[in-house]
Amino acid sequence: MSVLDAYIKIQDVHFTRGGRVIYENVSLTIPRGKVTAVMGPSGTGKTTLLRLIAAQLAPDSGDVLVDGQNVHALSRSELYKVRKKMGMLFQSGALFSDMSVYENIAFPLEEHTQLDAAAINKVVGQKLHSVGLRGAAGLMPSELSGGMARRVALARAIALDPELVMYDEPFTGQDPISKGVLVSLIRELNDSANITSVVVSHDVEESLSIADHVCILAGGRVIAEGSAAQIRASDDPQVKQFLNGEPDGPVPFHYPEGVNSMFNKDEVAL
Amino acid sequence: MKAIASMGAWLFDWLEAVGRAGIFLVQSIFRMPVRFGESVSLLVKQLYSVGVLSMVIIIVSGTFIGMVLSLQGYSILAKFGSEEAVGQLLALSLLRELSPVVTALLFAGRAGSSLTAEIGLMKATEQLSSYEMMGVDPLRRVIAPRFIAGVICLPLLSLIFSASGILGGHLVSVSWLGVYDGAFWSSMQQSVYFDTDIMNGVIKAVFFSVVVTWIAVYQGYECVPTSEGIGKATTRTVVLGSLAILALDFVLTAAMFGDF
User: Fold this and answer.
1) Is B125–A97 a contact, with Cβ atoms under 8 angstroms apart?
2) How far apart are CA A127 and CA B185, in angstroms?
3) Which of A86, A90, A111 is closest, CB to CB, to B126?
């Protein structure tokens, strides 16, 4: 663990939202140039983690260091500069609905580079080629299928050749073929451009198959961290329950009823 | 005691919301797009969707309101034998009062609600976050062009409303009811002054445009990004916008025409 060169360091982060504790002193490391999978049940704040790294949300306490810089101590313009080194694939794709596929990918280039139209055309062509959608350049986002939209969003996320790409639930709602395509794309992009990738997901098989490094979050804490093989071999009952999809275990099947329960307590044990 | 405390809490919440909305407005105006060509093309797009697409409803309503006004005005003025004054009645009531107010109300319903829904949906589909993640300020990219387009369009729409109202009134009173054409126009020419009547109407429309567009973009930006939240925000835009227009109209009218 300690030999890994950290690209992102999250140190003792405490985060609450609406009175609910999301993170309690979470510390984790995301190694440079590797694919890191952050897994955990729904509602454990996996997306929140990405938003903390991108400094769209601020922690109550603790530091988030991206490439050695504390992103929560930066001024607005410095932060925008750091974000140019990050690409993010949103759960919904988040393509700009008033722009075509081509314009969506050209947008960050027009915004942040001095390239002329011909050079932008070349880059957009390359990026679309790498996700296999050169032929879809003229379509509008509403004309794309879910899997295609996510691939276009991926092409846009890597348009500026970022150092870090974050994937928010890339496999959710995809058919098996698109899942396979995305898995191999994430791996290929990571290796060919030496990108650091963070994949947030609850799809166990897909995530473990590409991850070099895995973190499992549950109940506001990191319950396991290590290589995919180490995680698979883990004895921790909570980790086992999650990986094997067992309905009951340390993570309870029943949501706690509390004192304001609407039901008669005696009737439950039938 | 409890009632007073909750009223105080409500007042504080309200003041906080107004303050946040104020900061939001200032930020979106002062963070205009950097590149000139880009800002022009964004603005033109919004001028089209906010202004040009609102023109049909403005022209049709203006024409009908002018027709109704001259019909009502004629029936009363004819009793005093002064039916030529219908031109004056029509022009003054439209320019001073009806055009800015009715245009702003229609604008809140037509353009304001669509601005709120559009921005709210952009928020729900993470497009606003997406801009932020690319290091592009959504305030300057999404909010500023929409706000400025609204402020430019509403006063112009109000003038179009006046023109169509006067033409509609002319149709009814001259072509149908037989008011003498020359008297219709000359009574208007005698009584309408550019700086007190036309300009005051335009100034009203400018105030309304700022308030309505501000409410619309703020409600969209701050809405809860769910289907229910967007629906509520859209309703709030129309309700708050209309109330603000009517209240502000009273204040402005008192300031402009109140010294007898």
Assistant:
1) yes
2) 65
3) A90
Residue A1's pLDDT is 44
Neighbours of A236 (CB within 10 A): 15
- Judge: A90–B130 Cβ closer than 8 Å, yes or no: yes
Residues in chain B: 260
**pTM of the entire predicted model:** 0.83
Percent of chain B's residues with pLDDT above 70: 98
Task: Provide, as residue numbers in chain A, all residues whose Cβ is less than 8 Å from the Cβ of B114.
Answer: none
Which band of pLDDT confidence, cut at 50, 70 and 90, is reported for residue B161?
A: very high
Looking at the complex, report in whole angstroms how far the Cα of residue B35 sits from the nearest Cα belonging to chain A.
9
HSE, side-chain direction, 13 A CA sphere, residue A139: 14
- What b/e string do you get for B24-60 counting C-beta neighbours within 10 Å, with b at 16 or more? bbeebeebebeeeeebeebbeebbebbbeebeebbbe
Asked if the Cβ–Cβ distance from B122 to A92 is below 8 Å, we say no
Q: How far is A149 from chain B (nearest CA, A)?
A: 13
Hey, of B134, B139, B142, which one would you mutate to test binding to chain A, going by the most A CBs within 10 A of its CB?
B134
Q: Give the residue, A22 or B53, on which the prediction is more confident.
A: B53
Confidence at B246, pLDDT banded by 50, 70, 90: very high
User: Residue with structure tokens 């350049």?
Assistant: A137
- Residue B51 CA from chain centroid, whole number: 11
In this predicted structure, what is the pLDDT of residue A2?
Answer: 46
| N-to-C CA span, chain A | 49
From CA B249, how far away is CA B158, in angstroms rounded?
14
Q: Return the closest-CA partner of residue B107 out of B165, B166, B62.
A: B62
Does the CB of A56 have a partner CB in chain B at under 8 Å?
yes
Q: Which residues of chain A have pLDDT under 70?
A: 1-4, 252, 265-270
Using one digit for the tens of pLDDT, what is the confidence trace for B197-245?
999 999 999 999 999 999 999 999 999 989 999 999 999 999 999 999 9
User: CA separation (Å) from B241 to B28, B208, B233?
Assistant: 19, 9, 12
Chain A residues lying within 8 Å of B126, measured CB to CB? 90-92, 94
Which residues on B lie below 8 Å from A107 (Cβ)?
A: 134
Mean pLDDT (chain B) is 91
pLDDT in tens, B75-90: 999 999 888 899 999 9
Name the strand (E) or helix (H) holding A184. helix A176-193
Judged against a pLDDT cut of 80, whether residue B34 lies above it is answered with no
Nearest CA of chain B to the CA of A248: how many Å? Answer: 31
Size of interface A-B (CB pairs under 8 A): 47
List, edge to edge, every strand of the sheet that includes A196-201. Answer: A86-89, A164-168, A196-201, A35-39, A213-218, A221-226
Is residue A6 within a helix (H) or strand (E), and if so which, with residue range?
strand A6-17
Q: Tell me whether A114 touches chain B (CB under 8 Å).
A: no
